[in-house]
Amino acid sequence: MLDRYTTDYLNTFDKLALAISGGRDSMALLHWFCQNFSKDKFFVVTVHHNLRGDEGRRDRDFVLEYCKLHGVDCKAYEEDIPTFCKEGGYTVEQGARIRRRQIFAQVVEDEQAQRVVTAHHAQDQVESVLMHIFRGSGIKGLRGMSLDDGLLLRPMLKVSREQIEEYILANDIPYVDDSSNDSEDYTRNKLRLQILPLIREAYGGADCNILRLSERAAEICEYLDGLSNNYTVKNGETYIPLAVLQGERVIAANTVINAVDGITTRVDLSQKHIDAIIALKDKPMGASVSLPFSLTAHREGEYVVLAKLQEKTYGGRIDGYGDYDLGEEILRLSKEQVGKLRCDFDKLCGCEIRNRRVGDTFKRYKGSNKSLGDYLTDIKAPKRNRENIVVLAKENIVYALPQYEIADIVKVDEDTQNVAYMTIIKKDN
């Protein structure tokens, strides 16, 4: 079913995860892997979305039983997609796609597999290109899906639906039907069931021509990407130099898209979002724009910074040496030197660990007393991060800002009996 080139490419990976739903296409893929690779080369990932009740559970159990029968390891994920969509403001199609990709990204990040293999085929590619066109996509949308995007591998992109059906019949491969594929409530289904048949009737070679367009667009994108990588990723944020955004329009736009892809799973940016990000080059310092899926862009110095909007909430009280939970990070207070900040531990004891509040004041070491907001402005703390700053305070008096510096009130002096060193570290360190 797969050509030699694709098979050889699959062989370059030590471990692959197969995304299997139980449908015809994915079962053909699983069968082909079982026939062509040893079972230690791959395992199966199946996601139950809790969208189709008993039918969804049937599909999950079908995949589990098939894998058990054929000696294939299988990991099943149970997801509450309706709640995920409601909380994130997504359509069911968007939410299911986003959550699946998050799961697949975690599989690769945890080094369970080097790639997740999907059963997308040639007709899926045709549909994807058309949907991108109808949504107002740029050249990257014309490219459609790629064989390998660094997370997903799609070895069947050149395999037609007819070839898959022939393979299923020839090998008597069992599969289950997803009734939602016949529902025209979903955009892709409406395209598949209503629009594409009309296009094919009017243009006999439409599928082949669209796939050819996709291949040409991919070649152009590969060339442009080689010229559009002048950005850096740091602490989960991307920094694009203003000089890039002031240069050739096509390179600036392509750099923005690549920079977004560098910090998150793929987000559908419209032209107005790309234009708004590029326009920040002419905006004053601190200007920002909101983007889809909790992304923001900010003008900072000689850069435009793209970041995920994350609200963190801190709690607790300093009552001794040790580690204090900050969510993804830890505040560490030690008798040994673990960071640059040193303070009088006894004066620090009793401080509340919290986010900043209206009315907070801060007197920096050997400095003057002022509002915390004014202090943060003085040190040019990025506005996007100010609500997530860790504050150690009693009432509205700030004793220390572990990410920046201590207050004069907790400085080490001749009366200090116990010294503490303060630092914030990642939990995985």
Pick out its properties.
429 residues; alpha+beta; five-stranded antiparallel β-sheet; 38% helix; 20% strand
How would you explain this protein's 3D organization?
There is one protein chain. A hairpin with a 3-residue loop joins strand 18 (397-401) and strand 19 (405-406). The longest helix is centred in the middle third of the chain and has 20 residues, at 206-225. By secondary structure, the protein is an alpha+beta fold. Helices cover 38% and strands 20% of the residues. The strands form five sheets. Strands 3-2-1-4-5 form a five-stranded parallel beta sheet, sandwiched between helices. A five-stranded antiparallel beta sheet has the order 6-7-10-9-8. Strands 11-12-20-13 form a four-stranded antiparallel beta sheet.
Helix/strand layout:
Elements: H1 4-10, E1 16-19, H2 24-36, E2 42-48, H3 53-69, E3 74-78, H4 81-88, H5 92-109, E4 115-117, H6 122-134, H7 139-143, E5 152-153, H8 161-171, H9 187-202, H10 206-225, E6 232-234, E7 237-241, H11 242-245, H12 249-261, H13 271-279, E8 288-291, E9 295-300, E10 303-308, E11 322-325, E12 329-334, E13 341-344, H14 345-348, E14 352-354, E15 361-363, E16 369-371, H15 372-378, E17 391-394, E18 397-401, E19 405-406, E20 419-426
Parallel strand pairs: 1-2, 1-4, 2-3, 4-5
Antiparallel strand pairs: 6-7, 7-10, 8-9, 9-10, 11-12, 12-20, 13-20, 14-17, 15-16, 17-18, 18-19
Helix pairs in contact: 2-8, 4-5, 6-10, 12-13
